[in-house]
Amino acid sequence: MASYWHYWVGINQRAIEPMYESKSDVEIGMLLSKKMNELEPGSCTFPTKGSPEEWAAKEFNPGIYSMLGISDYKELINGPRKAKLTPASWSDGKFRTPSKKIEIHSELAKKNGLPATPIWVEEMKAPEKYPIRFMTPHPQHGLHSQFQNLDWMMTANPEPKVEIHPNLATQYGIAEGDMVKIFNDLGSITLKAHLTRTTSRDVIVAYEAWYKNSIYNVNYTVKATPSDMGKQATGNDGLAFHDNFVMIKKV
Q1: What is the CB-side half-sphere exposure of residue 151 using CA atoms within 13 A?
Q2: Which residue in 25, 92, 116, 134 could disulfide with 246, CB within 3.0 to 4.6 Å?
Q3: Which residue has the higher pLDDT, 20 or 158?
């Protein structure tokens, strides 16, 4: 087990034996590969055998062992190890730029149709038709499409809601539990209102997630706005984080 946020690497050990038909991702992959090759020999190159220990061992090589200061992955059972990595990106002072230095003025950016030096860009303003800012963050009770297939999770978080400040709700004649349509020129979603002072007066919040037996999807109102960077590395502009503005009404 590693992390995006630190340099420590540890190892997970099984707490209980798998219950019922539970299987690890690797086991599922091996069984799928085996079945595919039974139906059409040679159709899948994914391995069809190997114990969890054998698969764990395959993740390590001399370079990884040296980085962690161990000679065998089983040493991680005694405790996690910190990877011997530099404390900061480009700590050697060598950057991936033509000059190998930090470039405040970039001819490469200019070549790609961007300003050679940083410029101020005004923030997005709410259009008159859609004056409300719509936030769609990660939920507390889920992870994208995961967990909502669990009955006990459905009990804790049974349906999507939109969080609205009481002042904003009053302005639009919305009460707790009312069904509310959220829309802009791209599309719309309809869901139940939850009044709360944890959000700002001009902001509504609905969490991006999948709900069982529901067509709820916050992307119905979110535009795929490209960023001005990314083409140099990938050949295509990346997608930008950006403001999203909507109108609401009670239905």
Answers
A1: 0
A2: 134
A3: 20
Nearest to 1, CA basis, from 87, 59, 88, 61 = 59
pLDDT per position as a tens digit, 63-103: 999 999 999 999 999 999 999 988 888 888 889 888 999 99
Rounded to whole angstroms, how far apart are CA atoms 186 and 130?
11
Give the tokens for residue 142: 């889920």
Asked if residues 59 and 10 have their Cβ atoms less than 8 Å apart, the reply is no
Rounded to whole angstroms, the Cα distance separating 125 from 104 reads 28
203 secondary structure, DSSP code: E
Hunting for tokens 């709360």 — which residue is that? 196
List the single range of 61-70, 143-152, 161-170 with lowest mean pLDDT: 143-152
Type of residue at 155 = T
List the helix and strand counts (H, then E) for the chain: 7, 8
Ramachandran assignment for 144, one of left (phi > 0), alpha (psi -120 to 50 degrees), beta (any other): left
The pair of three-digit structure tokens given for residue 116, joined into one six-digit string? 């050679």
Which 3 state secondary structure label does DSSP give 188? strand
pTM: 0.68
Strand, coil or helix: 239: strand
Residues 6+ apart with CB under 8 A from 163: 194, 195, 196, 198, 199, 204, 205, 206
